[in-house]
Amino acid sequence: MQVSRTKSTPRVFSRTPIAAGIVAAIAAPVAFAQDQGGELAIEEIVTTAQKREQSLQDVPISIQMLGNEALEELNLTDFKAYAQMLPSVATQPALTAGGGTLVYMRGIATAGDGQATTSLPSVGMYLDELSTTTIQGNIDIHMYDIARVEALAGPQGTLYGASSQAGTIRVITNKPEFDEFSSSFTAGVNSVDEGGTGFTLEGHVNVPISDNAAIRLVGWNRNDAGWIDNVEGSRTFPGIAGDTSDDITLTNTDKAKKDYNTLDVIGARAALRVDLNDAWTITPTLMYQQAESKGAWGDDLSDVLQSGDYAVTHFKDEFFDDEWSMIGLTIEGAIGNFDVVYAGSYLDRQVDGSSDYSDYSYWYDSIYTTGYYADIHFADTGLRALPNQFEGLFPPGSVGSRVMTGARFTNDDGYTKLNHEVRISTDPENRVRGTLGVFLQKQFHDFEQLWEVEGGVGTVMQMNMGANPKFEDTVYLNSMFRTDRDTAVFGSVSFDLTDAVELTVGTRFFEPEVHVKGFFGFPAGFQLMWGTDGESQCDAVPGGTGPWDAGATEDFNGQTDWEGKPCLNVDKTQEESDNVSRVNLTWNLADDNMVYFTWSEGYRPGGIQRRPTFGEYLSDFLTSTEVGWKSRWLDNRLQWNGAVFTQDWDDIQIGLTGENAITLVANGPAASVNGLEMDLLWLATDNLRLSASVAFYDSQLDDDYCCEDLGADGLPGTADDINEADKGTRLPLTADFKGNLVARYHFDMGGFDSYVQGAVVHQGDRDPDLDQQATAILGELPAYTTLDLAAGIARDTWSLDLFISNATGADEPLLYTSQCVAETCGAQVYGVRIKPTTIGLQYRMDF
Q1: Which of 292, 601, 626, 698 could form a disulfide with 645 if both were Cys (CB 3.0 to 4.6 A apart)?
Q2: How far is residue 88's CA from residue 315's CA, in Å, rounded to a whole number?
Q3: Is 132 helix (H, G, I), strand (E, B) or coil?
């Protein structure tokens, strides 16, 4: 919300700090101003959702939008807080913070995304005109000095292309202003119940350089306090064939810590705006952010290791560092009667992380390998109690004892993204008007992701099999280069059939290409236990008789260390070509009331499997039919917007667990989603504002989802005909009902502009996975209700706010997960729960 400042419209409207963005979903995307009679009324807000300026109430899209003052009012610190609570948006948080949240819209989710060679995101993310959606997920932008956030629900494929299959979310920054100098500073502190203390520091300055040039500088530093403890404890791995004398016990004395999970975010943004003349403007931008997360953000709900409430017992370092920078350039101008826009950017992102993998090791070891994975001991007399397949491979007395120190999963991910878009548009006042555009994009992902057991079995085997010593502690390795290219031509034409009726048609022709090159699989020793993928696919060892020779120590015919990888065993390319379209009919019933009909398509490109020998997966498509309305009543004091829709999702890209517990993607069955979304804003009095928003969804699979059926397409299937999910199963992560209610009352108190505010949000239960066997093990994500409270005072150029988020202490999980598939690790389930009650104080000064 934005507020026009008048004598009877207190400045306090810009000062409500509802924590965690809970009321973002219900805060109406409007401004307030006095009408000609002096009464408070709802004022229009301009949006560029359709890549041209329009009043929000004239855009035939189900859209939620928050303006600059609303973002300040709600005290949003990151995008996840806003997106998670929108009626049309569902999120899947991660056990690590700082950029791990996956975003979905209108129920289009399978809960199997987020890996390096699986599906691209289904929701597009933009910073101004620049795409920020990377191959493995979105970046988490700190929300400060933002002009508005636009959430466009439903397929946006014609205008926004790939990964806007289910919707698009745009973060629009404040631009440099020529007319005046301005600056502000915000400082806040908060305390988490039974946790630590965090803080936020933010500031901006806008400096006019001349009558036609200005620069805007923004900076922030945020610390999110922890509340989950890493409790001191131990874990005993079983010995060989049940021999307890060979047990190995790990302890975490050096890793135990109170308030284990913390997040530090620093960043800056600079923008220069120059009007070259009356027709042309250039806006170069530069943005940088680093988020450093430590610890685990979910706790062990099953309490296998008796860690306790809001606690884990982990044995390895855990962190997630996400550092990125982006250079952007926007050029706007006119050539004759045509408006021209160029938008280009280059994004460079580096993500490094490490997670405890002791659960994975323990449960696979206990269930499947009866001890020889965790504990193969060597003595001076040779190998002892080794399974038959290892006999004779190791010379007696060649190595000493090795003790496993615990398992971990590490990742080193580098992303680059380069995109260009050029659009040419006719005069928007013409009765027939249109837009034509060209889009080029190249994404690159260099990733090295390892499952490591330091000082364990791998070291011994690698030393005796001539394998690459760089990976001597590695059990499994993904080390590849992935390149995604997208070339598209798009356009739309609008016709004013009458003064009140408009018809718009648009289409987008696209050609995606994905190329994966590198190494995947097991190092030499572990292939004896679990599979043939890996170093056995490298060239034969000199003098050996097979793909590898146990007694050799030479390199693999010069193939060792190909681009830092053991060798090259993957080199695949996939290309596609298709188009999506959109048809819209809008009928303006009156100045403040309209209805619309929209038929639209969205898509998500296909790709190469994480295990490329199993082929590739193709694009999946979403088709939506929507009828919506936007209306104002009671002399512009009541706004009621809504939409009814049905969506058909074809050739669903589904992540599934294949051979050796490797996640693959297959084009599965079809699904459908029917829904109703509504939001209401009522200015009940000049001092009291009420807002509400609801969303109802009915989603289901239209066919059985069965691994045996997928096996017919070349993917590993099951030995029986048990379905992963039956026809009629609802899609995961999205509740059947989501609702929000907020009340805000402002008043004068001793000469201070003052307010109190309360917000309630409710979300129904959700399935954590499409696989119903996994859901039966993990359990449904329960429904929850939270309450936020806030109060504040303001005078002249300063304000002071007190807020309490999650005042009732709701603690329901937002995510269920385990370190490996639920069928194996499901006895030890983690939950990322609602953040405990947090009390905060914030001070702001404008200069």
Answers
A1: 626
A2: 39
A3: coil
The span from the first CA to the last CA of the chain, in angstroms, equals 22
Question: Residue 534: which of 564, 558, 565 has the closest Cα?
Answer: 565
Instruction: Out of 243-257, 282-296, 806-820, pick the least confident.
Output: 243-257
pLDDT digits (tens, 9 = 90+) for 320-343: 999 999 999 999 999 999 999 999
pLDDT score of 15 more than 50 = no
Bridging pattern class, strands 31-34 and 2-3: parallel
**Residue 120 corresponds to which tokens in the numbers above?**
């691209």
Q: How far apart are CA 719 and CA 607, in angstroms?
A: 27
Cβ neighbour number for residue 37 with a 10 Å cutoff? 7
Q: How far apart are CA 812 and CA 310, in angstroms?
A: 12
Residue type, 418: L
The pLDDT, as a whole number, for residue 525 is 57
H helix runs in 63-110, sequence order: 68-74, 79-84
Tens-digit pLDDT profile for residues 64-109: 776 666 666 666 667 776 766 678 888 888 777 655 678 899 999 9
C-alpha 502/C-alpha 431 separation (Å) is 9
Strands 752-763 and 784-795: antiparallel
Cα within 13 Å of Cα(269), Cβ side? 26
Q: What whole-number distance in Å separates Cα of residue 414 and Cα of residue 481?
A: 10
Element (H, E) at 760: strand 752-763
Asked if residues 30 and 42 have their Cβ atoms less than 8 Å apart, the reply is yes
Q: Which of 125-134, 185-194, 730-739, 784-793 has the lowest mean pLDDT?
A: 125-134
Query: CA torsion sign, 813 to 815 to 821 to 823?
Result: positive
How far is CA 62 from its chain centroid? 21
Q: Which of 644, 646, 651 is nearest to 672 (CA)?
A: 646
Give dist(CA 777, CA 799) in Å, integer: 50
In whole angstroms, give the CA distance from residue 38 to residue 166.
42
The set of residues, in sequence order, having a beta carbon less than 8 Å from that of 31 and lying 6+ positions away, is 1, 2, 3, 4, 42, 43, 44, 45, 67
CATH superfamily, with its number, for domain 2-534+569-846: TonB-dependent receptor, beta-barrel domain (2.40.170.20)
